[in-house]
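Support request, please re-run this one:
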Amino acid sequence: MRDAKAIERAFADVALRYGHIDVLFNNAGINRPPSVLELTLDDWNAVVAVNMTGMFICARAAVRHMVPGGRIVNTASMLGLSGGWYPNIAYQGDKGAVVNMTRSWAIEWAPPPDPGQCRGFPALCGRRSSPRSPINQVSSPSSSN
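Re-run finished. Output below.
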């Protein structure tokens, strides 16, 4: 899960052999559960590299070879939503990130719906939002938006 080039090659090999990728079941997880004060930066980085970065690399590699209508299923954890109840900051934090990466990919990679289904919601019809929306503007302390 830590070798991006090997992962990219593996997905390219699968696509070459079978013509495309239909589905990715994206499931990875390791844990280093010491408390925040005891967790080393190396342990933090190891957990994030597998649980978050590895899943990102796999999803990106798969979608490059995926057929229209293909699917990605990401496995996170209840601890990514709840924060959990024991020392587990690296695991809980990156599983929360997996939840939000999934939401982001759903918006970025999903096909637009039938235009008749999104009246009043231009973001759902291929436009992320109105060009006049504050989300599409850079603000400064002196600006009025």
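The longest strand covers residues 66-74. The chain has two domains: 4-111, 117-145.
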